[in-house]
Design brief:
- By secondary structure, this protein is α+β, with helices and mostly antiparallel strands.
- The protein contains 9 helices and 11 strands.
- It has a 4-stranded mixed beta sheet, covered by helices on one side. It has a 3-stranded antiparallel beta sheet with strand order 2-4-3.
- Helix 4 runs antiparallel to helix 5 and helix 4 runs antiparallel to helix 8.
- The protein starts with a strand and ends in a 7-residue tail after the last helix.
Length: about 250
């Protein structure tokens, strides 16, 4: 791990219990609804211990119901909302709590009937909510530098380890996270909801999921630098995540 910040223990109690198999990954302790992270063990890179957030209730009340117009796109609305309401926090537990609210909203079961992916179940949505919550601690700076990287950046590997998914199952889950879940209506939902985490969801993948995950990046972040760093950093860390997979005796 590379770090330039304090590595105090991160704790949060969420509304729902997480799968205890998250304990397979270093630095994560799940005890029902209580989650504890040891940054020194959890992160591959941890250079920034502040995040831009907005209280979920503020986003829910002030942005989710607003429609774009001919002169104001949903992206503009989200950017302006972040500028007006965003605040910096060093409480990583608060980030996780807000993220869980964001992803409980985005990956809700009412969408299953119209998803068009019959193999995706309510249990898969629970996996997505949990993994995406941890991903909210990853961070990209305005200059495109990737400052925080945890194992959940590498979405198929991390979910494969935790949920005993095959390579095919992990890739299917990544495809849903990567874009298969989002028609235009849900894409708009995602832009609005991610304002609570201070930016927009950016995928590192190209035309298909390829283990480069995603991050909520600030509006205006350099995608050129982001893409270059991402291409250079991942192979060793993916191998390390995969090493925690439980294999049958």
């Amino acid at each position: 791990m590379t770090t330039t910040v304090d590595t105090a223990t991160i704790t949060v109690e969420l509304p729902d219990a997480f799968d205890p198999r998250w304990n397979r990954l270093p630095g994560i302790t799940v005890d029902g609804k209580k989650i504890t992270l040891d940054p020194a063990e959890y992160f591959f890179r941890f250079e920034a211990n502040s995040w831009l957030v907005i209280d979920w209730q503020t986003v829910k009340d002030g942005l989710l119901g607003v429609d774009e117009t001919e002169t104001a796109t949903v992206e503009q609305m989200a950017l302006e909302f972040v500028k007006a309401h965003g605040r910096s926090t060093k409480d990583a537990g608060e980030v996780l709590a807000i993220a869980y609210q964001v992803y409980s909203y985005l990956f809700r079961e009412e969408h299953l009937a119209t998803l068009g992916l019959p193999d995706v179940t309510a249990e898969h949505l629970k996996m997505l909510r949990e993994a995406a919550t941890f991903m909210a601690l990853n961070k990209v700076e305005l200059d495109g530098h990737i400052s925080n990287v945890g194992p959940c950046w590498f979405f198929p590997s991390a979910t494969g380890v935790v949920f005993d998914l095959s390579d095919e199952g992990g890739q299917m889950l990544d495809e849903v996270y990567h874009g298969g879940w989002f028609n235009e209506h849900r894409r708009i939902e995602g832009i609005k909801a991610h304002a609570a985490l201070g930016g927009r969801l950016v995928h590192g993948c190209q035309s298909k999921p390829d283990q480069t995950g995603g991050v909520v990046a600030p509006y205006g972040a350099s995608m050129a630098t982001f893409g270059k760093e991402l291409a250079e950093m991942k192979a060793e860390w993916i191998e390390q995540v995969n090493s925690y997979r439980v294999t049958a005796a």
